[in-house]
Amino acid sequence: MSVWVWWTEAELNGTCLNIKGHSNLRAMAFPSTTQLKSLLETVVHQYGCVIEDIQVARAGAKSSVKIFVDSEVAVPTTLASATEVQPHEFTGPDLDAVEQLSRDISAELDRAEEQGQLNFGPGYTLEVGSAGASAPIVKPRHWVKNLGRLVKLPEGPLKGAKARVAQAAEDGVILIFKKGKELNVSLHSLEEVSGARVEIEFSKVPEAEQHLVGLQASAYDAMIDRR
């Protein structure tokens, strides 16, 4: 589920009014995503989050800044070093946290504009939220957060196949495929499965699959299909 909080120009303490009295701001360009990320990373980290993406759309007074955040999680460097974890123990930021974070981001942007670091021109709308379960899984952190979940794989030899995420690290992911009544465990590089998406399940996860999720890495050695 995505969580979003947004503020209009008026709610941003009069963003367009803040630039008055800063003559040097008129010559400055609308801030880039790189500038915004550098400025806001510290604020976001205080909430145990990371900046997932920043989208800037310039359209005069209708310009918008969208900031996607996600919870920060520890990612094993290698699958060999992965330890036992509980499925679904990683969650995204809740609505209250996102609401307060959005206020702090707004205040930081106002401060930067007043000091002449940024120029948003005639105003903008700020939106802060989480990407939600429908976002593509592309980073090691995404795979770790989705341990135990069913995913649909993207382009390539596995296109369209569904698998459950058993374990993940910076160097790869272990997936569980169900073929009839048989469960096959296989190892994949992150590049091979990048772009997978979570499949919403309405029934309980079968116990046989649950028992294979989040195990210590060595427990998979004898199970992995290396064909």
Overall strand count = 9
Number of domains: 2
Q: What is the CATH homology-level superfamily of the largest domain?
A: RimP-like superfamily, N-terminal
Please state the oligomeric state of the protein chains shown: single chain
Main beta sheet strand tally, sense and closure? 5 strands, antiparallel
CATH topology of the largest domain: GMP Synthetase, Chain A, domain 3
Class from secondary-structure proportions: alpha+beta
Q: Give the helix level as a range of percent.
A: 10-25%
Radius of gyration: 21 Å
**What is the terminal separation in angstroms?**
37 Å
Strand order of the largest sheet: 8-7-6-5-9
Q: Mean of the pLDDT scores?
A: 84
Q: Rough shape?
A: elongated
Instruction: Write the H/E string, N to C.
Output: EHHEEHEHEEEEHEH
Q: What is the percentage of strand-forming residues?
A: 25-35%
CATH architecture descriptor of the largest domain: 2-Layer Sandwich
Tell me the number of helical segments per DSSP (H or I, 4 or more residues long): 6
Function: Required for maturation of 30S ribosomal subunits.
GO biological process, one term: ribosomal small subunit assembly
Subcellular location: Cytoplasm
Family: Belongs to the RimP family.
Task: Break the fold down into its secondary structure elements and pairings.
Elements: E1 4-7, H1 15-18, H2 33-45, E2 49-57, E3 63-71, H3 95-114, E4 124-130, H4 140-145, E5 150-152, E6 162-169, E7 172-179, E8 182-188, H5 190-193, E9 197-198, H6 207-210
Parallel strand pairs: 3-4
Antiparallel strand pairs: 1-4, 2-3, 5-6, 5-9, 6-7, 7-8
Helix pairs in contact: 2-3
Subcellular location: Cytoplasm
Keywords: Cytoplasm, Ribosome biogenesis
Organism: Corynebacterium resistens (strain DSM 45100 / JCM 12819 / GTC 2026 / SICGH 158)
